[in-house]
Write a structure and sequence with these properties.
Blueprint: E1 2-5, E2 18-22, E3 28-32, E4 41-42, E5 48-51
Antiparallel strand pairs: 1-5, 2-3, 4-5
């Protein structure tokens, strides 16, 4: 998942095909209504966009800046790339 500033994101095509599924608790999932793939979505703060890396057509040419929520990863998953790790959201 890529987490970028909103001012660095622009839809080129397909925005009109985004479907939102929302639960009564406020949790939302955004996906393509044609193929079901997760789609980019703006975070609650309105300043950041989460982009599923699998939705990209090519290499985004960005380095990993850290791993979040490692406090809840399965114990057999090993993160060994040397990037910072955070149990939850970083401060």
């Amino acid at each position: 998942m890529l987490n970028i500033r909103r001012d660095r994101f622009e839809w080129l095509a397909g925005e009109d095909n985004v479907q939102v599924y929302a639960t009564p608790t406020g949790w939302k999932s955004l996906f393509c209504r044609t193929c079901g793939c997760p789609t980019p979505h703006i975070l609650r703060d309105g300043q950041r966009v989460l982009i599923p890396a699998g939705a990209l057509d090519g290499d985004p040419d960005v380095a990993i800046s850290g791993h979040i929520f490692v406090g809840s990863k399965v114990r057999w998953e090993v993160i060994a790339d040397g990037s910072p790790q955070f149990d939850e959201w970083p401060t």
